Amino acid sequence: MTDNHTRDLTVGSPMKLILSFMLPLTFGLLFQQFYSMVDTVVVGKFLGVDALAGVGSTGSINFLVLGLCNGVCAGFAIPVAQKFGQKDFEGLRRFVGNMIWLSTVIALMVTLVTTLLCRRILVWMDTPTDTFAYAYDYIFVIFLGIPATMLYNLLSGIIRSLGDSKTPLYFLILSSLMNVALDIVFILGLRMGVAGAGWATLLSQLISGVLCLFYMARKFPILHLTREDLQFRPVYAGHLLTMGLPMGLQYSITAIGSILLQTAVNGLGANAMAAVTAGSKVSMLCACPFDAMGTTTATFAGQNLGAGKPERIHQGIKDCTVLGVVYSGVILAAMYFLGESLTSMFLDTKDPAVLETIAPLSQQFLLTNLVFYVPLLFVNLLRFTIQGLGFSELAVVAGVFEMVARGVFGICLVPWLGFRAACFASPAAWVMADIFLFPAYFYCMKKRGFQPERTRIRRLSSVKF
Predict the structure, then answer these.
(1) Is residue 332 within a helix (H) or strand (E), and if so which, with residue range?
(2) What are phi and psi of 58, to 5 degrees?
(3) Running DSSP on this structure, what letter comes out for residue 187?
């Protein structure tokens, strides 16, 4: 039996369910972006440019490693959503029990490898000498906190898979506020330097993860595990790994493409670097609804697959397409008039020459990305739905398409064509991914029993009465 804190996404209007599930996720992602900006200001304002550069230089490796962990957690949550849709709560609990074993082993292994190789990784990345110590002090603590990060992401993923997207939002807001407060305490009060920023992130994630655990124990009776549920079962563990590892690899593969592109942009000089940075920050804010939509469709697909309702999954895709296309047009029009002002917030406005040269480049980068937001919409919709359907390995192939596209632009086109090629790198990656994702989506849906409307009509018309 279910309880009042779960939400069944297998009955009712797909559009209403998707909106009610997606909006809290969107707000949470927006809040996380704003928090990230505040966090950057605290480091830059009170520790100086070198410290800020050191912390910033770890962004790609941070995304590479933590993206792997977060992707694994997201993949582990999909079988839970499927079992919830089937109303197989015994199987659900056994998946959760085996998730505990696997996530513990993965967290410890990744933490051990990254902390031991931390200094060597920064050397491989050609981290400048004047920022090396700052980068090491920060990222070493972040790597130490991988178990806390996995705890929070794993538990929040389980809660969302049961149809509750609001509670993870509350814990995300709490974690973000704690992080900012602890930044100030550790950096200003205890004078711990950039390591203080790392410890603030670690502790806020740990506290939020523990609170998630207590909340689940009190509010979700179907998650009360017995000793039998905690028994390691190779079949369950194998299924979890086939879902989680490909999703983790997908994030890491995408990060590799971003690293190649960033390396090429660095070769264009400081103005291009600043323009891409400012434009990317605004673009990431604008893309938050698409990220939320992707997480929503994964849960929606998982539950409805478990309930044996593939036609609802396809209807959900169509409803999300309408929402996404309308939003793409609205945000493009808004940023056409407001984009340059927003990107200028991240630039040094004390120098008029900066605004005259970099701000138009930032606007060019931003608008080029926004024009291709419909392909980005389908990247999120189709990739996460494919994952929800249980074909995570195909989602990895889409990540490879993105990586290759960004790599071609980074290695070949940006050095040749300059800044304009950098503007088109991500749009090209989205289009390349869609070329693979559309046929992959229909292939996966067919495997899960979905029959397109035309096929059903033909079959009905052939019936003799």
Answers:
(1) helix 310-344
(2) -90, 0
(3) I
Characterise 301 by phi-psi region: left (phi > 0), alpha (psi -120 to 50), beta (else): alpha
List helix spans (H) across 267-309.
Answer: 270-286, 288-306
Dist. CA 198–CA 304, nearest whole Å: 40
Please enumerate in sequence order all residues whose Cβ is within 8 A of that of 278, keeping only pairs 6 or more positions apart, or say none. 343, 344, 345, 346, 347, 358, 362
Indicate the average pLDDT of the chain: 82
Q: How far is CA 32 from the centre of its chain?
A: 11
Confidence of residue 67 (pLDDT cuts 50, 70, 90): confident
Region for 449 from its dihedrals, namely left if φ exceeds 0, alpha if ψ lies in -120 to 50, beta otherwise: left
Token look-up 């697959």 returns 305
460 has a pLDDT exceeding 60? no
- How many Å is the maximal CA-CA distance in the chain? 83
* pLDDT at site 367: 93
User: What are the distances in angstroms from CA 274 to CA 175, 202, 256, 257?
Assistant: 29, 29, 21, 19
Per-residue pLDDT tens digits for 223-247: 888 888 888 889 988 888 888 887 7
